[in-house]
Amino acid sequence: MQTLFRLPLFILLIGFSGAAMLVPAGYAATLGLGELGRIFLFSGALLLVLSALLGVAVAGNTDTIFLQGRSALATMLGAFVLLPVALAMPLSLALPDTGLYNAWWEMVSCLTTTGATLYAAELLAPPLHLWRAMVGWLGGLFILVTAVAVLAPLKVGGFEILDSPHRGSEKFTPLVEGEVPGHRMRAQLLNLAGQRASPTEQSLKLAAQVTPWYAGLTLLLWVLLLMAGDPGLVALCRAMGTLSTSGISPVSGPVGIHSGLFGEVAVFAFLLLALSRRFWPGGESLRASERLRDDPELRLGLAVVALVAAVLFARHFTAAIEIGAARPDGGQAMLLPLRDAAVATWGWLFNALSYLTTTGWNSIDWKGARNWSGLESPGLLLAGLAMMGGGVATTAGGVKLLRVYALARQSQREMERIIHPASVSGGGAVARRIRGEGAYLAFIFFMLFALSIAASVLLVSIHQIEFDTAVMLSVSALTNTGPLAGTISLTPSFEASAGFASNPWQGWSGLALLPKTVLAGAMVAGRLETLAILALLTPEFWRR
After folding, report:
1. N or C: lower Cβ tally within 10 Å for the chain?
2. pTM for the whole thing?
3. How confident is the model at residue 533 (pLDDT cuts 50, 70, 90)?
4. What whole-number distance in Å separates Cα of residue 416 and Cα of residue 426?
């Protein structure tokens, strides 16, 4: 194990990617797809050999043992940009007419758990679907691990909201005689978790804690979906897409198309894990409350889901009751609106949570919910949910619930000060931190997020793309919610193609090189967060 701790994290990621390719290779062999199985086998073997050679080459370099936080952050950026080149080899070889660039784009979408695709589901072989779902699942595991191992010590990625400059204590600590204040702050910035340990060691130790829970819950959901009636591959991909919030599926259509209501309820329950980091190991520093029922992210997320369903329920229920009561059969006629109301409410509850966690799946009752509530264009509402996002340091994207909560509490405090100017706020150190510096940092991130959307829309619109299409594609990419683009009637572009299996009607594959590259960059920026990327560009961050 100590040998692995000495290796750069990126080399280990290459090796893990090669080992993961052996799974679809075996699956292809069982289906009798020998050529496709050999593609995965040889690609995996190549990556394993490459990682071994690189590991031997740098094993004796002791300078790589204790990488600083800035290098670890650069490794995360490299993992989302460069690692998909290696992950794309089987896809580009299996689909020769798609090209390496389109295969790389597809893997960026999967690894960032965006779930946008260039291809029609029915035109891809089952092992390729399995590989896409596995890359999305591994991307979710990667962010669960590195969010705590890398982003937390650097106080980015949402951890800055609850972080105190005095490390949890508001007592003044005097400097030691002769100590320079800047040295203390620099040590805190460059040290990982307050310990002299490499990012690789931190990540591997945390992965050993997170992986059993992550894999075990995926296995449990897979079994539940199999029991509900989903085919094996569909159930497995749904399970991996739920835990990773990637929304990757080998079939098009709603979640309950095979498993029915039971399958949707199971997926709904597991999507709740993306609302708060406290459900996963390593989230102790993000706990704003001791009790689960007081968790601000969880309460806010559930409140938003319930509010969306309640408003849309009330939007049409009153009129339906009045129409039903006016009919000659009276109370019996009201049973149909009540039944429709129950179906529509479940459809809205499921979709609200699905898009809030940036998964982007639809319920089998989604179409009925839209028709019953009279909401013809729900894309804007779902985009708002996706922009809000899930919990900090989870697999969900978006602005994150903790930042929204901080802004809400700060707004509440300002309203109180208008009414009672001399009032003193309470709630303890954590509440004061959230209302003060936490809200300030959340506002900065929100502005950066809005500027990122504007820049992405501007660059995508350089080509002749409809404005609403450019906006929805940009929001889908930045929130890592690929299926969001399908919630409106997009105007497809036919400036390029991803090959025979291309599906330009989804709005992605027909884009030209520039807008497609911009959207890939937006996926990476949304996954790693703009604030962390800007930190890499700051000279002070790189100064020793």
Report:
1. C
2. 0.89
3. confident
4. 12
Per-position DSSP letters for 132-168, written without gaps between them: HHHHHHHHHHHHHHHIIIIIHHHT-TTTTTT--TTTT
Which tens digit of pLDDT belongs to each residue from 465-508? 888 899 999 999 999 999 998 888 777 788 888 888 888 877 78
Q: How far is CA 191 from CA 7, 74, 145, 146, 198, in A?
A: 18, 15, 17, 15, 9
> Shortest CA distance to 259 belongs to which of 250, 267, 271?
267
Task: Kindly give the residue spans of alpha helices, DSSP state H, lying in 357-400.
Answer: 366-373, 379-388
CA distances from 195 to 66, 147, 191, 201 (A): 10, 17, 7, 11
User: 192 by DSSP, 3-state: which?
Assistant: strand
- Of 355, 344, 446, 347, give the one whose Cα is nearest residue 404: 446
502 vs 152: CA distance, rounded Å? 39
Dig out the tokens for 94 from the structure.
């299996």
- Other C-beta atoms within 10 Å of 172: how many? 6
Match 């350089």 to its residue by tokens.
Answer: 462
d(CA 263, CA 237): 13
Per-residue pLDDT at 320 exceeds 70 = no
**Two tokens, residue 153:** 């010590």
Query: What is the residue-wise DSSP string for 228-279?
Result: HT--HHHHHHHHHHHHTT----SS-S-THHHHHHHHHHHHHHHHGGGG-GGG
